[in-house]
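Batch manifest, entry 17 of 40.
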Amino acid sequence: MKIGMVGLGKMGANMTTRLLLDKHEVVVYDRSADAIVAEAAEGAIASTSLPDLCSKLSPPRAVWIMVPSGKPTDDTIHELLGLLEPGDIIIDGGNSNFRDSQARCALAKQQGVDFIDAGTSGGVWGLKNGYCLMVGGDDAAVKKVEPIFISLAPPDGYAHVGKSGAGHFSKMVHNGIEYGLLAAYGEGFEILEKSEFDYDLHELADLWMHASVVRSWLLELAEIAFRKDPKLTDIKGYVADSGEGRWTVEAAIEENVPAPVITNALISRYVSRQTESFSAKVIAALRNEFGGHEVLHDTAGTKA
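Output type: structure tokens
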């Protein structure tokens, strides 16, 4: 089938290529002209703007957007709603908050446009392995564009998981779980690295992938990382987050669900971004005041 793809970053570009390989027609647009040229070289149909993209699609039109969450997604959807007609479909495959997706669905319905939220997992490996797709929206709309989901996903890697918002909610929780898994692997390998034993972390990661109960795709990626850089000397321990972990913790609080692992994993990411913790300074100062415990002066790094 024919579909528009808006946003040609790492995910959008690879998804476009995967669709082209499965013989779909893809009209592409990105703010980067170079990104458009690169996909056109793969066989995509180039467009110079959202109006141009929509003009190159035949009704009922389907447009997949892969742009950053928040205002960029809002702006793109609002512009598309001024261009699309009743019966057309917008698919948001980005990491949007599920409440935003529900509001966007309601807004689109006012104009007779269907809105689908597609939680998308697979990262830069999706081109080769396929993308896990968690899709939320009305049955009829999802059915119309199902060939796209089937082409993007590996066998059994796509499911229509529920009504509007269900796709992005399940992707949010998926990423919250990911936070906890990453934190556990990180802590475990640090304990190994700091121990009295001279472990080859690459060897252990590879070993654990064979019949171990902790084997996983993330562990496979750890093996690749340690193979490239055994001590991770070229990597700064700064861990960003794109929102899903925060939203998962907020949902847990709203639902009265205890989620200490995911919550602590989120907090540890904040800690990773601090060059120096003011909280730790307060604790050091208080220990010095009540117990005369040693503190280090920031200026010279000498004990006081």
